[in-house]
Design a protein that fits this description.
Layout lengths: L1 H5 L5 H16 L5 H23 L2 H20 L11 H7 L23 H5 L9 H5 L7 E4 L2 E4 L7 H15 L8 E4 L23 E3 L2 E2 L5 E2 L16 H12 L8 E8 L5 H7 L11 E5 L2 H6 L13 E6 L8 H6 L4 E5 L3 E2 L13 E3 L4 H14 L1 H18 L2 H18 L11 E2 L2 H5 L4 H10 L18 H32 L1
Parallel strand pairs: 3-4, 4-6, 7-8, 7-9, 9-10, 10-12
Antiparallel strand pairs: 1-2, 1-3, 2-13, 5-11
Helix pairs in contact: 2-4, 3-4, 4-5, 13-14
């Protein structure tokens, strides 16, 4: 097949070598031979480049160099583990097209549990009307990406590589569950803050709200919450893909017992992105006041110049308490903080991502007031140091939640069910956008370089799952949902009452 497509009218010598290289790569079974080929390919490329110069066969020189590149990349790209399926990097580089013969084999697994889900609540605005094409098109003004299956049309440049790794994550989902995700069209905004305001779309409005996907939501908007890009890596600040980092954090927790950790609250981040973070900096310990907090501003430019030696997340689990505070909107740091075995002190959040609505105050975290952060943090630390077993239990409950409910297989299941439920609501037949380009793992990964390629490799799915996704949870019925929200509210009010009584007593003593 490859000989017929790529060796027409070429010299016999070059044709034979190309065919043997490509045929061996696609059909190989012994991966040890790849090292031999990799060592020889540089010499071969140089030799055939000389032939091309003599014969003016530039076309075939470029073709051979493409094959050479793919051979050199084969240890990374060609075998994908469980399914033993080979990336067709050679064909991708030469033709810039995606393979059409992906395998698919899924079996039923009725005993697989399902994690908590807010999918039905996020899609509720369209439950009765469905999603029309006009609704989808109306989100174009704020959209970075438009997806149709594995085709994407870009409208605006996204910040850093958010769009790249979001798309990579979707491709891994399609690879994990081949043939199971239906055709659909969606609009995706890679900016932090949600923009589809609930107040703009009431029952009298003839046009329903645009179904716009993004990384977070809040109680005043209707944006559909999706997974954030950092689950597959954050190149710009050297944060590993979640699957690798989750293991590192688990090992990091073992280095120091909770009782042996610093009895203070810790935060390190960029304070310039939000006023509330600038206010938090004032809670740092000083000669005049000790708020039980160690707060540091992160200089990412200096950190990158020094090789990120001071920003290893798995090495930062050395305090009993860690502070989470939002930036311009929600922050990806929340999952890293919750995974640390420390008591997570959550400064009252305005936004939520896809999993944080499943957290319960005083069980998974300790709520911190937004209007008086420093006093609230000091009380939380004093309380925890006076109730060590209870405080340690809160930290452990959070890290257990992250390790169990936020493992990558459940992350992909959430994506799968969200996209499937969304597709069911479409009232039109999805079509490929005219300007969309086809994406597949080969077209993205085969030509990637540096840290981006490294993170692609770390976050790549080994192959199609042997089982179907977990069962889609039933939607919350109104009484159950009300009970959950009421329990959260009561827990936060209880902490605020304890805190008020504490400071009232302090004032009386002074």
């Amino acid at each position: 097949m490859y000989r017929e497509n790529h060796t027409t009218n070429s010299s016999p010598l070059i044709s034979k070598v190309i065919f043997k290289l490509s045929g061996w790569l696609i059909t190989r079974e012994n991966e040890q031979n790849i090292n031999i080929i990799s060592n020889r390919i540089v010499t071969m490329t140089s030799y055939f480049s000389h032939i091309c110069i003599v014969q003016f066969c530039a076309t075939y020189c470029n073709m051979l160099k493409a094959y050479s590149m793919a051979i050199l990349m084969a240890p990374h790209f060609c075998q994908r583990g469980a399914a033993s399926f080979y990336f067709h990097c050679i064909i991708s580089i030469l033709t810039r097209t995606c393979p059409s013969n992906y395998p698919g084999h899924l079996e039923e697994d009725p005993d697989r549990p399902s994690p908590p889900s807010w999918i039905h609540e996020d899609l509720h605005p369209w439950a009765h009307t469905g999603i029309t094409r006009d609704m989808v098109e109306s989100a174009k003004w704020t959209t970075n990406l438009r997806n149709y299956s594995a085709y994407v049309e870009r409208y605006h440049r996204a910040f850093q590589t958010r769009d790249v790794f979001t798309l990579w994550g979707i491709l891994q989902l399609l690879w994990r569950y081949p043939g199971k995700v239906p055709d659909l069209e969606l609009m995706f905004d890679c900016v932090d803050w949600p923009v589809i305001r609930t107040s703009d779309y009431d029952v009298s409005n003839s046009t329903g709200p645009p179904p716009l996907f993004r990384y977070c939501g809040d109680d005043d908007t209707l944006d559909i919450v999706f997974l954030d890009w950092s689950f597959w890596g954050w190149v710009e600040i050297n944060i590993k893909p979640w699957k690798s980092l989750l293991k590192d954090l688990k090992e990091g927790n073992k280095r120091m017992r909770w009782m042996d950790r610093e009895p203070y609250a810790y935060w390190k981040g960029n304070p310039t992105v939000a006023l509330i973070r600038q206010q938090l900096i004032k809670c740092n310990v000083s000669d005049n006041q000790d708020w039980n907090a160690c707060v540091y501003a992160q200089d990412w430019i200096r950190e990158s110049q020094e090789g990120y030696k001071q920003s290893d997340l798995a090495s930062q689990c050395i305090h009993r308490y860690k502070i989470y505070i939002e930036g311009s909107a929600w922050s990806v740091s929340e999952k890293y903080i919750l995974a640390c075995d420390s008591v997570s002190l959550l400064v009252k959040p305005h936004y939520y991502d896809f999993f944080t609505r499943g957290l319960m105050p005083v069980h998974h975290y300790w709520p911190i007031r937004n209007d008086d952060k420093c006093k609230s943090i000091k009380f939380a630390v004093d309380w925890g140091n006076s109730h060590k077993q209870k405080a340690q239990g809160i930290g452990k409950a959070a890290s257990d939640f992250i390790q169990e409910e936020l493992k990558m297989e459940y992350v992909y299941d959430y994506m799968f069910h969200l996209l499937n439920e969304y597709a069911k609501l479409l009232t039109f037949k999805p079509i490929r956008p005219r300007k969309a380009i086809e994406l597949c793992a080969e077209t993205m990964a085969c030509q990637a370089e540096g840290l981006q390629k490294k993170f692609f490799m770390e976050s790549m799915e080994n192959g199609p799952s042997y089982t179907i996704p977990c069962t889609m949870p039933n939607p919350y019925d109104p009484p159950s949902l009300h009970a959950i929200l009421k329990r959260k509210e009561n827990s936060i009010k209880q902490v605020e009452l304890w805190e008020k009584n504490f400071w009232d007593n302090q004032n009386k003593q002074t």
